[in-house]
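User: Can you model how adenosine-5'-triphosphate sits in this protein?
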Amino acid sequence: MPLCVHGMYQMTELLGAGSSGHITSAFHILTGTEVALKSGTALEDAPDMPCIVRYEAMVYSLLRGHPGIPSCKWSGLDRGSYVLTLEHLGANLEQLHRLSRGKLPWKTVVMLGVQMLNRVEFAHSRGIILRDIKPENFAMGIGEKSHFVYLLDFGLAKLYVNPSTGAHIPYREGRIPLGTMSYSSYNVHLGREQGRRDDLEALGNVLLSLLHGRLPWEDIYAPNKEASLRRMAEMKAESAAFRDLLACSPAEFTTYFDHCRSLKFEEKPNYGLLRQLFSQIMEREGWTGNTRFDPLDGSSDKGTLVPKEYKLDVRFTGGDLTTLQVMIARFLWLRKKLSSVKEKGGSSCIGG
Ligand SMILES: Nc1ncnc2c1ncn2[C@@H]1O[C@H](COP(=O)(O)OP(=O)(O)OP(=O)(O)O)[C@@H](O)[C@H]1O
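Assistant: Here's the modeled complex, given as structure tokens:
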């Protein structure tokens, strides 16, 4: 029998499992509203000790109110687990990347890029750096919001300003590299304290990987983890492979990385300039005929131009042109089908 959380949310299917806990689909038993539950185990003898999900709940409260951040409906302890009740989202960008067989079209990547940059800028404007920018941590909305990108997973997020003094955190070296190393900035490999510049460089790496399928340092062979991280750092620094990757990407990506890497630790990135780079690509490609602003753009700069219909093209390898929304619908249908097959097989995928 599926579990009921907080006496209100009936779990239905497992959506994912990560380092901090499980994510399950559920619905509110009175209203029928679909939600996603993220639960992490709290220590039995010390239920008040911090667990990652509880920490995330605090970050969600700092980021509350932006439509590109999933709303948190309830959070609290339930049978020894700390549970976050979040707005239900669709496929994450890694899943869409796989569905498109490793290569999302240029136009799609640029349009996703604008929204992703806006979400990261919003987190920064609330004093938070994310430190784990990766495709899995951006997901599309569902239904009416299936063309909007959401930012999620704040387990490694951190305040970069002291809330009482407003001072920036101090620069330090010798830090343990945190985050997902394929996408992390060059500085992270060097053990430097992360700041806003590192989130933006990681975002650049994510966009390149969505564009090209793989990043050159994902294919390296090294005898151990240390050697692999060292080699990755060398490649990110100034390797021919990285230069080649930029050479076969829109020229604006080179300016993007130059800007991120020229920033001093405490320096505020020029988000407007980075957004302008995406607009430049759109203009050059003639994607700006009918324009409007990103309706979810909570940032200060309203200069982003996106096509009116705002439909993201996705070209399957077969050559069909379809919209990202169709892909998401297909993804959701597949997920539902898989979970019903599992249930018929007698093994419930629901925790407990
Ligand atoms: N609100 C949501 N709605 C739908 N799916 C979600 C939601 N939140 C998370 N997921 C799915 O679950 C996956 C894992 O979620 P999340 O990244 O929050 O967990 P995590 O434990 O921090 O993972 P990791 O250890 O990989 O960082 C996401 O990539 C996403 O596909």
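A couple of observations from the model: Residues 198 and 312 are 27 Å apart (CA to CA). The chain is about 35% helix and 20% strand.
User: Helpful, thanks.
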